[in-house]
Every structure is written in C-alpha cells, then in structure tokens.
Amino acid sequence: MSLPSTIAGINQLPSNKKRGIYRKIIPPELLEMFNIQKDLHDSQGRDLIELHCPSGSTDTEIALYHSAEAQDPILFGHLTDSIHGQIHILLYGMNDINSTRYDVDRLPDGSKTSFGTNQRNLIAEEKAFKAGLAPGQIYRGPHLFKETLLAFECFAASMRQELFFVEPLYYHVALIFEKYGFLYQSGKRFMTRIEQGFAPDGDLIPLLNNSSAFRHPDAAGKIRLRSWAIHDNILEEPFTNVTMYKYIDKDRAQTCEISIPW
User: What average pLDDT is seen over the chain?
Assistant: First the structure.
C-alpha cells in the first residue's frame, strides 16, 4: 500500500501507522548519537516521542527526547500541508542537549519568547552570542543538516511529492538553505535588500556601531553576526515572510527506503 500524499491523509491513519511514518523524518544519525532505540522507547519501555497529529488536522507537531526525564527535546518540528497539498515545514530544529543551555526561549519568569521572535531574554542572548551560537539556538546543534535533508527528501518522495517548502525563521538559516539548493518562493527581494545593506557602502554599515552587543562592526562580513544584527532589529522590521522550496533529488530519492511498516 502506498503512503498518503498529504499530511492530512497521514493524520487519518491509526496512531501506530502515523508513528511509523513520521519517524522517517528523524535522521538515523541522531538516534545513534543519543543511543535511542529504533522503536523510540527507552530501556524501560517509556516512549521518547511526542506526536500531535489528530485526525482531521493538516498539521503535525513532533518532539523527540533522549530520555523520559528530559525537559528539552533533541528534535522538534511542525509540518503542515500547503494550500496545494504539498509539504510545508514551518519549524524544525535539533538540540545537542550535552552542550550548555542558553535560556533564549524564555524570560526569567518562565514566559516563552518564541525563540526570541516575540520577546527577548537579552542576558541569555548575549551569552549565546558570545558562545558562538546563532539567533534562536538554545543549545548547539548536532551538525546533522545534510542527514536531515536526506530524511526529508525520502519522506517527501515516499508521498510522491516532487518538492517541499520551508520557512526559515532567521537570516542565517535561509543562507544555509540556499547552499543546499533551496529556491525562494517569497522573500528573495528582502534577502537582496539585506545583502545590499551590508555591502561596503550599504545603509546598514553605520548601524554596526556597537550600540548593542549584537551590532558588531565585523558583522558586515560574517553571516552569523549579520543574523544577530538582524535579530536585533537593525532592519527596523522583523525577518519574516521568507519561504523557500526544494525539488527532491530524484537520484538520491531512488536510494531511499520508502516502504511503510503496515
């Protein structure tokens, strides 16, 4: 039996079948890194994955933990269907929970910041900045982007999709996507404006004046530092409305294991 072609279609399936399908977006290398069994349970049989994908919904939210006691996931994501029934990744990230945690996702009173997009914990952000992290990072990442991309291509190919969409939340993420062959559905003009602003004679250069920790003069030529300056509202507008897409590499997709455990 072939896989449904949409998230909505998958969500109509029984829970055990949905679980078997959605685990395919987890790169095997991440499971190996944290010694997680393939059935996503710990040695005591406790479940390590949380899925919110109710029948009738076009969305799926996923969180994978390295242990049942962990407060933070090692993987989190939010997928939905586009209006044309294509896969749209609204959020996807991974944490190396063995590294230092920076509380950029919450204020001292516990209020959530939506990764600094709604509110900002400036003290935590400055510590993350100085530690070499990029905006939105709570921990260092496990450096598995290529492996994750392959997992998504295989997932999309198994659904008979030809491409999928992503929503980069930060400037540096969009540039990483560019490097791996993603194209812009929207936001290309915005990205060009940013590039021009950071050019030697650009209008953003005078604003890299150390007026905050995130506006370092070196940011003109460094992607991570640019991203922090943009996060610090140097553009006087948020980094939003950027959507990208990638056609599936058919040669790579042919190597995917696309059978589904019914």
Answer: 93
Q: How far is CA 142 from CA 94, 112, 213, 246, in A?
A: 7, 23, 26, 22
User: What's the start-to-end Cα distance of the chain, in Å?
Assistant: 8
Q: Which residues contact 87 (CB under 8 A, 6 or more apart)?
A: 7, 79, 81, 152, 155, 156, 159, 161, 164, 165
Rounded Cα distance between 48 and 73, Å, is 9
CA distance 56 to 77: 19
d(CA 232, CA 170): 12
Please, what sign has the CA dihedral across residues 130, 133, 137, 141? negative
Residue 129 burial by Cβ neighbours in a 10 Å radius (0-12, 13-18, 19+): buried
Q: Is residue 95 included in any domain, yes or no?
A: yes
Looking at the domain assignment, is residue 210 inside a domain?
A: no
- 197, two tokens: 């602003």
Is residue 220 one of the residues assigned to a domain?
no
CB 243 within 8 A of CB 165: yes
For residue 69, what are the domain limits? 7-204+239-251
Strands in 136-242 per DSSP E: 163-166, 183-186
- For 3-17, the pLDDT digits (tens) are 899 999 999 999 999
Per-residue tokens: 144: 């598995």
CA 74: distance to chain centroid? 12
Q: What is the pTM of this model?
A: 0.91
